[in-house]
Write a structure and sequence with these properties.
Layout lengths: L1 H6 L6 H4 L63 H4 L12 H22 L36
Length: about 150
């Protein structure tokens, strides 16, 4: 059977060799963080989307039904709850970018200042140079050593 199929094998058609083009609907679509702000009626089945408020900024001492997530029972969940919830990355609000740049500049100036103070006192060579009996004349290629090249090459 297999030998008969191989004997009757036909060449491939040219249409099967053409590259296939993927339709636009199958391509990956990247969801933007501001997509929740766009008014799209009837896109979520009439669900009323509450205002976007990060749970990190809610009062931690209030009487919440779910104290860990800072949420009350029956409270509607925002469409972007994964971004706004307590388990999302924390928003950094300790100081503004200007103060951060100032602190970074102060750190760099301190390190460079410390290097400038230490540099003149940093020892570049050992405190006492090593001395060898008879010196290292022969070992370092001084007078009377055997050279690898001839006299004419030098």
């Amino acid at each position: 059977m297999l030998s008969q199929k191989l004997a009757r094998a036909q060449p491939l058609l040219r249409s099967s060799l053409r590259p296939t083009i993927t339709p636009l609907t199958s391509r990956v679509q990247v969801r933007c963080l501001t997509q929740a702000d766009v008014e799209d009626p009837n896109m979520n089945g009439g669900y009323i989307n509450p205002p976007a408020e990060k749970r990190q900024f809610r009062d931690p001492y209030a009487d919440w039904w779910d104290k860990q997530e800072r949420r009350n029972y029956g409270e509607p969940v925002h469409e972007d709850n994964d971004i706004l919830g307590m388990f999302s990355p924390e928003e950094y609000t300790h100081f503004k970018p200007g103060k951060g740049a100032l602190l970074l500049g102060a750190f760099i100036a301190t390190v460079l200042g410390l290097c400038a103070v230490v540099y003149p006192y940093y020892p570049d060579k050992p405190s006492a140079p090593r001395a060898f009996p008879g010196g290292l004349d022969l070992e370092l290629g001084g007078e009377g050593t055997l050279h690898a090249t001839s006299e004419e090459d030098r």
